[in-house]
Design goal:
The complex is a heterodimer of chains A (about 110) and B (about 500). Chain A has a single domain, classed as Orthogonal Bundle (Helix Hairpins), CATH 1.10.287. The N and C termini of chain A lie far apart (about 55 Å). Chain A has about 110 residues and is mainly α. Chain B is mainly alpha-helical. Helix content of chain B is about 80%, strand content about 0%. Chain B has a two-stranded antiparallel sheet. The two termini of chain B are about 20 Å apart. The chains are: A mainly alpha (about 110), B mainly alpha (about 500). At the A-B interface, helix 2 and helix 3 of A face helix 6 and helix 7 of B.
Chain lengths: ~110, ~500
Amino acid sequence: MEILMAFVIGILFMCATYLILSKSLLRIIIGTGLLSHGAHLLLLTMGGLKKGAAPLLGEEAPSYTDPLPQALILTAIVISFGVTAFFLVLAYRAYKELGTDNMEKLRGTEGND
Amino acid sequence: MINFLLLPILIPLITGVLLMFINKHVMLQRWVASISAFVTVIIAAMLAHKVHTEGIQTLNLSNWDAPFGITLVSDMLSALLVLTTSIISFACIIFSFRGIGQEREKFNYYASMSFLIVGVNGAFTTGDIFNLFVFFEVMLMSSYVLIVLGGTKIQLRESIKYLLVNVISSALFVIAVGYLYSVTGTLNMAHLSERIASISADGQLGIITVIGVLFMIVFGLKGAVFPLFFWLPGSYYAPPAPVMAIFGALLTKVGVYSITRTYSLLFYHEGGTIQALLGVMAVLSIIFGVIGAIAYWDIKKIIIYNIITAVGVILAGVASMNEDALAGSVFYIIHDMIVKAALFLLVGIMIAITGTSNLKQISGLIKNYPGLAWTFFIASLALAGIPPLSGFVGKLLLIKGVFDAEHYWTGAIILMSSLFVLFSVMKIFINGFWGKPLTYKGEEKAPVRQLMAAPVILVILAVVYGVGADFVFPYISQAANILVNPDLYIDAVLKE
């Protein structure tokens, strides 16, 4: 199971890298979304995918899954959610002010003489 | 009081929350922000004294024992960096009164500043690797707001790049923590160190080295180490002077601190590979930093490239891993934070007067602004490391350590770099302050006298820090001692 997850995560990272290297700002933001999905799935996989009950003491199971990676992922999800929301608004604002979403045209030349 | 080491995090946090409620009352905000920053300075100084007399302070949050809960650890290095952070943030807040403009102050400028300090102080104090990630995000999120606040075109353009780079490096941080957790099964740094020691003893060095290099990439991106500094010159160019000062002084240094902490505490077992890599990256950072600093005729760019050089110098000391070199690094990192903040603020005043950052359009400022000129001159000499001033002792110790570790080329390059650093700042002094005075558009309006307060405080501090090296040295050597003997740290946290 871990092997399969590793392949899936690898593909996610591959797509994210490809999208982040493109010119359009929206494709870049979609790339960062895929990148954080990959990172969160990796965290889950690296905690171990052994079979066990959901980490609720009411289940009274002989063994539970590891609760720590789930807490880490929950934290990482809300952080990346906040950052992505900020990034999207920034992209919207930049599009309005600068009139382009092409990264090639967002080059700076100040102080380069 | 056992919760004492929490106060440098807690005070700015509460202040930040308060400031959001009074964001339309500019005068009240200024008072609250500056008083809270001043209180933080005093608390941090008391904390440093406490660590000096009573040893490493640890606090298990909510009374969970060490590897299971989050532990905050304040050793001498953390305490000194927290103190420096507090002083610099206080200076930048004072500078902001006249230096940032009401339109920014009304939109949660001081609140963002407070949260930035929460993140930086938290990152310096935490003893848990995932908690370090969270504090990094607190710091970065506030820095995103500060870099874009005001919404001018250049700020929008550059903050997109800054944000993208940091989103990627944060994802890499999560990935690195995931790998480390799967190998060791713990997140507490002291416990991690023990587990990594036992894994290394079993001979499974490969995976530890890979994770170590991954952490180097993560922290290198945050700390602007060659070849990962490409985002820094553009991003730091965009925001206004006080924001630039607090970024240049604090943000990269958090990355440098994290490298120092992880490589002295976690990955010291395997020596060799990682250390050699760190040494090479440090030397190349120095070289590329000075190339940039010499190449530009833009006063902001010159100081920005000097950040990269300084990061390289500090990491060259860390790569040597003996007590002298580490003491030099600690001494130098504190000096560099103070002097970089002062230089950015002085450059900000020059830009406020002249309305341009192009050095070719500035000359003769010394005639009308002698105070500014001589403060800048002293700050430049301190940056280059001229003997009575603060840069000297750190670099001396550092080079002694580097030569003891038989890295002769590194030592030679550090010595050479001082010359080029001196040349780059003297270029500003000679071309900008000497020569024929010109008239500038901002000359009437710029409140130079009020703005000078903050950089003068910092420069006086830099001079005192250099002249009083005998007084501060016991603190520095205590910090270096813990870096060389990680067992002290582990014993303090795990209470064995």
